Amino acid sequence: MYFIAFAGLLMLLLNLVMVVKPESFSKGIISFSEQPYFHIVEVSSRIIAGLIFIHYSADTLFPQAIFAIGIVLVCVGVGLAFTPARLHRKFALWSAHYFKNKFRFIGLFSVPLPLLLIYSASYS
Asked: Which helix (H) or strand (E) holds 93?
């Protein structure tokens, strides 16, 4: 439960960075993708977060939605595990450049999801 709320708070913070400083957000993606541990952190964090979402979904206000988010996270993590690190890095760099001018809109548009996570996790 606390992890889901924390994930929501972290997402909300990242959304705010996207809105206020989209160029910095883009540079952050580029900088992180250049780290040697980038791929393994991306894969493992998604799988671990997904399993936690699945495990605690029944304890939230919207268990089916939280369960579905967990399934998506695990599937993305497994998909990334089968993606070569160089292609994953190449995609991260491409998306950081391509979406640089769109991050402000994306950040505003995606605010409801972290709010849903926080609200759903603080239910019980």
From this structure: helix 85-98
| Residue ranges of the chain with per-residue pLDDT less than 50 | none
Cβ atoms within 10 Å, residue 75? 13
Kindly report the pTM of this predicted structure: 0.90
d(CA 112, CA 30): 26
122: tokens are 């603080």
110 φ, ψ (degrees, to nearest 5): -95, 5
Contact yes or no for 108/25 (Cβ under 8 A) = no
Contact 44, 80 (CB under 8 A): no
Helix, strand or coil, per DSSP, at residue 102: coil
Write down the H helix ranges in the chain: 2-20, 22-33, 38-56, 63-81, 85-98, 103-109, 112-121
Residue the block writes with tokens 């952190």: 41
Whether 118 contacts 9, CB under 8 Å: yes
Question: What are the b/e assignments for 100-113, b being 16+ CB within 10 Å?
Answer: beebbeebeebeee
